Amino acid sequence: MSRIFSIATRSILPRSYRPVASQLSKYSLAGHGKIFYSTAGTENNDYKEIIVEYKGKRQNVALVRLHRPKALNALCASLIAELTHALASFDKNPDIGCIVLTGSEKAFAAGADIKEMQNLTYDYTYKSDFLANWEFVHRTKTPIIAAINGYALGGGCEIAMSCDILYAGDNAKFGQPEISIGTIPGGGGSQRLTKAVGKSLAMEMILTGKPIDAQEAERKGLVSKVFPKEVLVDEAIKTAEVIANQSKMAARMCKQAVQTSFNVGLDEGLKYERTIFHSTFAVHDRKEGMTAFVEKRKPNYEDK
Ligand SMILES: CCCCCCC/C=C/C(=O)SCCNC(=O)CCNC(=O)[C@H](O)C(C)(C)COP(=O)(O)OP(=O)(O)OC[C@H]1O[C@@H](n2cnc3c(N)ncnc32)[C@H](O)[C@@H]1OP(=O)(O)O
Questions:
Q1: Which end of the chain is more exposed for a tag (fewer CB within 10 A), N or C?
Q2: CA–CA distance from 259 to each of 33, 98, 230, 280, 297 (Å)?
Q3: Which residue's CA is minimally distant from atom 51 of ligand 1?
Q4: What are the pocket residues of ligand 1 if the criterion is a CB atom closer than 6 Å to any ligand atom?
Q5: Where in the sequence numbering do the catalytic residues fall?
Q6: Mean pLDDT in the chain?
Q7: Residue 134 — very low, low, confident or very high, per pLDDT cuts 50/70/90?
Q8: Per-residue H/E/C for the chain
Q9: Least confident of 44-53, 117-126, 232-241
Q10: Ligand 1 mean position, distance from CA 120 (Å)
Q11: Which domains, and CATH codes, for the chain?
């Protein structure tokens, strides 16, 4: 895999970026959908910039903490490589039904790593389609809850918005401050923020760089709930457990149907939903769920 990486990417990296390239190759990173992951397990304790734990009575919730405390969880290439690897491995793990993604109490993530980007060139970003691989959160099939305390800025806000459910701690701050460093949102901020909070507030945030707090984020529909910061992660895990105990196939299909509503018009979306709905009649878990209801017992899902 590192060979593929070196052929495809390393040759066009500017010299200052090459050490990062070698870290990426460790996790066989080349983009969700395009990569061939070398490991499918979740036993990987080798991560340096994320911490993975398993939660819930059935240990079917994966809790991922971004962990670069000295840099307020700034999203460097090696952290992204680890996160990509972890999320892909959860998708392949039949025991995991939901993921909670969080940071520290001070920062979910203060954005993409500015120190890493400082000396990048147009030549490099264009030829390597820089950031194209960072869509992995959105591409993950397992539902993801973002539990956001503290700063969610720039790429941090974009990663949070790529998740399926957003819960905020009462100290959270959401912003797209890229304009104040001479650039624009590059990880979907101009699109997802606008869809979430509407044009005027998105423009205000993106054009001024000023963040909004958790309460405003809840009022404007960017997050669905706000909790005291100390209990945020536990609350997210509780919801994640409810999701993880459903049929995993049904949960993935629900996610796919809702995601589609962002990309297509109503008629197309309704057609797509009905097609997926019909397909549940080919799934064991649909029969089991309905039978369990009729027989007044708990369903026994088999993820098939
Ligand atoms: C879906 C995938 C995502 C795709 C990403 C697409 C492109 C994204 C672009 C961006 O995200 S650009 C970056 C946007 N973020 C920012 O501009 C925020 C920058 N940080 C700050 O303004 C401040 O750090 C803060 C968050 C307001 C906190 O201020 P405070 O005074 O409390 O702490 P500091 O002393 O400033 O920071 C501590 C430590 O952390 C380092 N750091 C903080 N943010 C970053 C960052 N984004 N990149 C690199 N390093 C960061 C900061 O430099 C300090 O470290 P030292 O310099 O002291 O070693």
A1: C
A2: 17, 16, 30, 18, 31
A3: 71
A4: 71-72, 74, 110-115, 131, 134, 151, 153-155, 158-159, 162, 177-178, 181, 186-188
A5: 112, 155, 158, 178
A6: 88
A7: confident
A8: CHHHHHHHCHHHCCHHHHHHHHHHHHCCCCCCCCCCCCCCCCCCCCCCCEEEEEECCCCCEEEEEECCHHHCCCECHHHHHHHHHHHHHHHCCCCCCEEEEECCCCEEECCECHHHHCCCCHHHHHHCCCCHHHHHHHHCCCCEEEEECCEEECHHHHHHHHCCEEEEECCCEEECHHHHHCCCCCCCHHHHHHHHHCHHHHHHHHHHCCCEEHHHHHHCCCCCEEECCCCHHHHHHHHHHHHHCCCHHHHHHHHHHHHHCCCCCHHHHHHHHHHHHHHHHHCHHHHHHHHHHHCCCCCCCCCC
A9: 44-53
A10: 17
A11: 3-244 (3.90.226.10), 248-294 (1.10.12.10)
Q: Whose CA is nearest to atom 20 of ligand 1?
A: 110
pLDDT digit string, tens, across residues 150-170:
999 999 999 999 999 999 999
Q: Do residues 87 and 31 lie in contact, with contact meaning Cβ atoms separated by under 8 Å?
A: no
Cα distances from 85 to residues 82, 129, 131, 133, in angstroms, run 5, 20, 16, 12
Please choose from 20, 72, 125 the residue to mutate so as to test ligand 1's pocket, defined by most ligand atoms within 8 A of CB.
72
CA 231 / ligand 1 centre spacing (Å): 25
Q: What is the pTM of this model?
A: 0.89
